[in-house]
Write a structure and sequence with these properties.
The chain contains 1 helix and 26 strands. The strands form 6 sheets. Strands 1, 3, 4, 6, 11, 12, 13 and 15 form an 8-stranded antiparallel β-sheet that branches. A 7-stranded antiparallel β-sheet has the order 2-5-14-7-8-9-10, with no helix packed on it. Strands 16-19-26-21-22 form a 5-stranded antiparallel β-sheet. A hairpin with a 5-residue loop joins strand 11 and strand 12. The longest helix has 6 residues.
């Protein structure tokens, strides 16, 4: 698996289109006012015990997560920045003090680690964490802005007997910690499997590009008009769509260019807002067409309810090497019915 989830918040507005659960009410708002970059969108989380839960589909012994955050205004409250969950039990979580002077790891009410920091309200920081879940030999590693500030091992990082985590929480998993508003952007979660994206990715800007025209392969049937024009709405809509019942049919789209003009690309993540309309298994993969070479990303098992799915591509099929900005800008992206 390796890269399990990524979110730059640009392509939707309803939290549960992409995240699986909102704990502590509905106090999270996706808005361009909360983005880290001038052309990006972020999410603001506020409210007691509030957090966004993403089920990862794995029982991960180790998880790596990164996210940008900013506290826009001075507060008297500590906040929970992120949590790791096994089913409905929090294994461990990271707290930032109200004075922005310490980060503290906890298991339940037991403090595991306290790390002195010097942060300021109103500034963005990129936090990365790596947690290994074990009842005696667990560990946590913490980074800020690409610099490791702590690594502590020989910890009990599990509140349950299961030495793994099944979900990541941006914020708090429904506790009682009061919180002032906190802005988040550019979130990723990885495990340690596979050959790509299996460790810290460093500070990442997750950019989103949208369909702008028909691609090389246009097998799926549009609800009306052009195929690409049915799938470029923000937020996504089920009123316009493309569909197929034919195995291995592919729909690809020309897309806009990235804003970035330099830097490396860890992975391309194809998001598709999809549902099945018949009984039985239906699976869709993200499709890639690069020059004359085609490929598919990871496969997604569809539900009868619309949801955002992610399909990951680590290599440009035209070069068989890591994606470059020029490669992404020249490629087409879309969907393929695989089951």
């Amino acid at each position: 698996m390796a890269l399990l989830f990524a979110d730059g918040f640009e392509h939707y507005t309803t939290i549960l289109n992409k995240w699986d659960l909102e704990r502590g009410g509905t106090a999270a708002v996706v808005n361009s006012s909360y983005g880290r970059m001038s052309s990006s969108t972020g999410v603001r989380i506020a409210g007691t015990g509030h957090g966004l839960v993403k089920s990862l589909g794995v029982n991960a012994a180790t998880l790596i997560a990164g996210f940008a955050f900013k506290r826009p205004s001075v507060s008297v409250y500590d906040i929970v920045l992120c949590s790791f969950v096994d089913s409905s039990s929090v294994q461990c979580y990271l707290v930032l003090s109200a004075t922005m002077s310490s980060l503290r790891w906890y298991r339940s009410t037991t403090q595991l680690v306290s790390i002195p920091v010097s942060m300021s309200y109103g500034l963005w920081y990129y936090v990365e964490v790596k947690a290994t879940f074990n009842n005696s030999t667990g560990s946590v590693i913490t980074k800020i802005n690409n610099t490791q500030i702590d690594s502590t091992s020989s910890l009990d990082t599990c509140t349950t007997s299961n030495e793994y985590s099944t979900a990541f929480v941006l914020g708090e998993y429904g506790g009682t910690q009061a919180a002032s508003p906190t802005d988040y952007d550019d979130v990723y979660v990885c495990d340690t499997t596979g050959s790509y994206c299996n460790d810290f990715l460093n500070d990442r800007w997750i950019e989103t590009v949208f369909p702008t025209g028909a691609g090389t392969t246009t097998d799926w049937t549009p609800s009306a008009g052009a195929n690409w024009d049915c799938v470029e709405e923000v937020p996504p809509s089920s009123a316009q769509y493309v569909e197929t019942g034919v195995l291995n049919e592919i729909d690809t789209y020309a897309c806009g260019n990235l804003t970035s003009t330099s830097g490396d690309i860890a992975a391309v993540v194809i998001n598709h807002y999809s549902a099945k309309t018949t009984a039985g298994a239906r699976k869709v993969s993200g499709a890639v067409y690069s020059d004359t070479d085609a490929d598919v990303g990871t496969e997604n098992d569809l539900s009868t309810t619309y949801h955002n799915y992610q399909s990951v591509s680590y290599l440009d099929p035209h070069t068989a090497a890591a994606w470059t900005i020029a490669g992404v800008n020249a490629a087409e992206f879309g969907v393929k019915l695989t089951t």
